[in-house]
Amino acid sequence: MTIRNPRSIFWVSAFLLLVSCAVASAAVAIFDPVAQAKIWADRIAGLVKENKHAQVEAETQRFIVWLKQFEAKYPRLESFISTAYGQRSTAEAKQGKYLEAANTVRESHAWKPNPANVDLAMKYTMNHMAQSEYYAKTMEFHNKRIELKRQILALVREKDALVQALLKAKDITKDQLEKLQTQLKALSEKVAALRKEQKDLHEAFLKDTEKFRKDEIVFTAAQSLQIRVKAEAAEKLRDTIAKVEERVAKGLLTITEKYKWSWDGLEELLGKMKDLQVKIMDLQKQMLAIMEKKPLSEADKKVMLELKAQLDKLLAEQDKVMADLEKAFMDTKTFNKLSPDQQAKYLEMFKTIREAATVIGETTKKIDAFIKEMMVKYGDLNGDGKIDRLDLAEMLRKFLVPWTPFRKPYDKAADLDGDGKVTWADYNLLKEAVLGDRKTFPVDPENLPGDMDGNGKIDHEDVYQVAKYITDPKSFLDCYKKIADVNGDGKVDLKDLSELITKITTPVAPTGDATGDTKAAPAAAGTGDATGATTGETGTGDSADTLDSAY
User: Fold this and answer.
1) Fewer CB within 10 Å, N- or C-terminus of the chain?
2) How many Cα atoms occupy the beta-carbon half-sphere of 428 within 13 Å?
3) What is the pLDDT of residue 221?
């Protein structure tokens, strides 16, 4: 299209000029070094926050070169250059490149001198020297560590060779086993010494290099790679040692089993069982002797429980050994491997052991029953260790369903008045204990002399009851006689009443009792008939001597 109008040509030319000016202004804005520097600096700051030290190092190096092209014309770029130098040296230092960091500080100082640069360059130079020392010590530590592990591996392999050689034997004698144990013990002591040396080495290394970690000295990527290679070599040796030791442990277990079922092993097991059963019977004799006492004191009960704990431990061990002996006897391969003489001896001893185990079991049942009864608490009819409404309901059930007996041994815990039978009188006594102030029952030997109502203290009500007993003793059960006998002379008379009144009216020093009343010592310790009367039999009695002579 041809424009012939001069005025049109003018306006077109003016428009083109305006467009050219706008494009030129935009170009100037796009290539403004200060604006570009700000964008670049923000990108580097983001990398610093992300701890991407290698990228920071590379970016700041290019950034500084670019900034110096425009520095002369744009003085505002000077602050960007200073910041970039600082970021670059810091990034290099965090990568362990302390010499490069010092050189970057020197380059910054050459561009624009600053007294602070001297201190910073000195710091990085000293860090480089410390790094060299730290690296040398670390490599030395790993080399020594590897050498110690190699020595340990050699000893462990020697143990394995001994074990594997003995595993090839058809039968294992006691002499062979003892020889192996001696050899393994010597090797194990050497291994333990090397492991202690290894531990000491590690502790010394940590102490010697503590200052480097405190100063946060880091290694370069190349140094870290070399250290990692050494550490992996040490870990590989550790895993190899663990595998060989596991093989040794499995081999020893197999050898032990082979010896266990050999004649030497079985004879040793039989002897162990004999000694074990003699110990058990000795404990049972002591316990049976205590059971003959009547009544038992609290000290006797304590001894019984202590002996029972020992007995249970020995019985568990006896069961374990017996299981092995029975297994050997019933296993055709094991028993037939023995010679005729060995079989005869085994059978004789095994028979005696089984007979003794039967006697021990019967005596243990008697002891268990006695202890269960010994631990019964008056009024505790369900055996939960406390006296509450549940016990009251248990006794009531007895009267409602009379053909249902109490569970043993809690039947004796229900006879609270000691008349030899369970009546409504016992129910009322239990009800007083559950709902009232009663602390003890008439049958309980722990009653305080004179405490006729069993509330745990002596008061005027007790005086009235003792006086009533003197005038009408037949109205009381026999168990009250012992309580009313305040002076313990075996009879209840005015002397007892007088002594009881004296105790109530005589002031005494406080003993910490909230009631202010003093408590006399119990007339007799133990539980009387509630613990169950002994039959006079001694259970194992002479069985320990019989067993010993049978062996």
Assistant:
1) N
2) 6
3) 95
**CATH class in words for 128-260:** mainly alpha
pLDDT at 543: 37
Q: What is the CATH number assigned to the segment(s) 270-374? A: 1.20.58
Q: Which residue has the higher pLDDT, 8 or 335?
A: 335
Q: Which residue type, as a one-letter code, is found at position 401?
A: V
SS3 content of the chain, % helix, strand, coil (to 5): 75, 0, 25
Q: Which two tokens stand for residue 232?
A: 């992996």
Residue 63 near residue 84 (C-beta atoms within 8 A): yes
Check for a shared fold between 128-260 and 270-374.
yes
Compute how many other C-beta atoms are within 10 angstroms of the C-beta atom of residue 61: 15
Rounded Cα distance between 167 and 187, Å, is 18
Residue extents of the structural domains in the chain: 128-260, 270-374, 389-529
Cα gap 344→350, rounded to integer Å: 10
Which of the pair, 519 or 418, is modelled with greater confidence? 418
Residue 375 · residue 410 · CB < 8 Å: no
Other CB atoms within a 10 A radius of the CB of residue 480 amount to 20
Taking alpha carbons only, the member of 330, 311, 334 closest to residue 322 is 330
Largest Cα separation within the chain, whole Å, is 158
Tokens of 366: 């008697």
How many CB atoms within 10 Å of residue 540?
Answer: 26
* Tokens representing residue 501 in the block: 């009144």
Q: Would you state the pLDDT for residue 400?
A: 64
Q: DSSP class of residue 414?
A: G
**Cβ-based neighbour number of residue 488 at 10 Å:** 13
Q: Is 395 exposed, middle or buried (0-12, 13-18, 19+ CB in 10 A)?
A: buried
